[in-house]
Amino acid sequence: MPGERPLAALHRRRPPRVLPVVLLTAAPWTWFLLRDPLGLVGDVLAIVLPVLVVVGVVLLLRSLRRRGVLPAVSLLLAGTVAVVVPWTPEDAGTVRPDAAVRLAATNVTGMTSTVPALLGTRADVLVVTEDDPAVDAALAPAYPYREVTMAESHVGVYSRYPVRLLEPAGPDLPGLRVAVAAPVPFDLLALHVPRPWFTGRGGYQATPAEHHRLVQAAAARVAATPGPVVVAGDLNSTDRARDYRSLVDGAGMVDVVRDAWAGPTQVTSWLPFLLRIDHVLVSRGWCGDAPRRFGLPRSDHLGVVATIGPCTG
């Protein structure tokens, strides 16, 4: 028939136009397979992922127009899954009532304006990062026991239970390791891991490699401790990145903040990156109840607070 040859030619021409669209549509979902094998590159991409997704969607729609709609929707959906799934509720079990401890992790950015909010949590144990002598003086009357370092990590532990310093801040410990004599005693790693991205001064607090090394050192401490361990503070490790997973999946810790819906804890100018970097993690056998985020006036972080302790049963 006279029309067969043009129709055959049309079929031969169609795959090269469809195949790139199919590949672009599938490509965003490879993130979940490649994010850990990418190593430090994957760590950096995880930090800026929401912004990359928005930029990618705009570029796809502008360059491919109607053919870019499906890849753009796929990219937006994959990015949403990557960001939001670590915020979804995941039952952290029920805390034994006679051993419950209310613990808060906060980055106060050195602001005394945060003190009323800190005291308002009624936390039994309070981990303060970017601590300051004025903040320390304001909190001291409310907490009979405390361990504070004003070294580079600027971490304070304020407690209604006796605390004993086990390990001071050092090159492998950006914070403090203390023993807390709660109804069921536990070791607390109160951490302020340096930020692995550019600061406002145009430099790094730590390279991504150094940040990864410090989190791995924390995971090793957890693994080496025979009793219950709590890791709390500003870890500067987003919940969609490898370092967070090395603690939760690798070291077997429970993210008690996910006992309810979680969300970003770094706010102000960093809010577009949707970073949840302030954490309360407990070792297996311990549980968490009633977590929430709370505002810290003039700080660029939200605080997190939860009830932790041995699980019932």
From TrEMBL:
Pfam families: Exo_endo_phos
A GO molecular-function descriptor: endonuclease activity
Membrane-spanning segments: 40-61, 68-87
Gene3D superfamilies (UniProt xref): Endonuclease/exonuclease/phosphatase (3.60.10.10)
Endonuclease/exonuclease/phosphatase domain: residues covered: 116-301
Name the UniProt record assigns to this protein: Endonuclease/exonuclease/phosphatase family protein
Protein keywords: Endonuclease, Hydrolase, Membrane, Nuclease, Transmembrane, Transmembrane helix
